[in-house]
Amino acid sequence: MMDRYGGDVLAGDWRRARRPPPREVPAEPGLVVEEVDTGWCGAVTRVEKAGGMQVVHLEDRRGRTRGFPLGPGYLLEGAPVVLVAPVRAAAEALAAARRGEARTASGSTAVTGVRARVASGSRLFVEGRHDAELVEKVWGDDLRVEGVVVELLDGVDDLAGVVRAFRPGPGRRMGVLVDHLLPGTKETAVVEAVRRQPEARGDVLVLGHPFVDVWQSIRPERLGLPTWPVVPRGQSWKHGICAALGWPHESQTDIALAWKRILGSVRGYADLEPSLLASVEELVDFVTAPVQGQDSP
After folding, report:
1. What totals of helices (H) and strands (E) does the chain contain, helices first?
2. Which residue, 51, 61, 234, 242, could crosslink 247 as a Cys pair with Cβ 3.0–4.6 Å?
């Protein structure tokens, strides 16, 4: 028989039926939203991949920035929305790819069809393996074209001896990148002594950055952090950072894996702090400068 009155009008979830699903909104730069769980309100500055997920960064009215997972959990003008990857950024990235404008990680125009040169006499020295790997990732293409090799110092305590052994001169320049180069530090005293050496005049350039470790020269936003955690004085900086982030840090293997994760977040020069960028760019220019009286290749 036909049911003249139909089904029960009160059956089912009648509250849900009246609420449309949150609409999807592209997380375009400048869009102001509120993150529901924390109440953080700010303007979108960028969207990026970090730790295997997409993160949207919101800047509040005081200029502070925090990263949150892209997706649901946001309010736009009081209404719930789902933030999705910005359409404009995707379109611009596609357009750039189609233009075929290739650039190295350092921002230089990529040189194609040119073999890496045989190693020149000049060298770029850095304190440790992590410094070398970061320089290689960002400036490696540029240095290979010029034939400049990056060498490890294993600390700067005997930098004066390294300079004497290297015997710098025309066509054999020595650029040195030093960590934690701040007034009053041991590193500054060592560098000032080296700069007074007769061997260092004209063909040796020593520059540095203010960070305790080269990890800190990578912008913390790349890992979804507003700032790097503060490590108490006297504690190993690398171990302290891993502990603060909740990462394994008991063994050297743990530290190596943490560095691999951090280095993997670096896409190019824009992910590094300006103080490191300025020093490395000047050092690269110094060691790749043509010898006076000779034409550059």
Report:
1. 8, 11
2. 242
Q: Which CATH class is domain 123-218+266-288?
A: alpha beta
Q: Where are the domains of the chain?
A: 14-90, 123-218+266-288
Q: Does domain 14-90 have CATH number 2.30.30?
A: yes
CA distance 199 to 255: 37
Domains 14-90 and 123-218+266-288 are alike in CATH topology? no
Q: Are 139 and 165 in contact, with CB atoms under 8 Å apart?
A: no
Question: Tokens 């789902």 label which residue?
Answer: 82
Q: How far apart are CA 3 and CA 108, in angstroms?
A: 76
How many CA atoms does the CB half-sphere of 217 hold within 13 Å? 28
**Alpha-carbon span 143 to 289, nearest angstrom:** 12
- pTM for the predicted model, two decimal places: 0.60
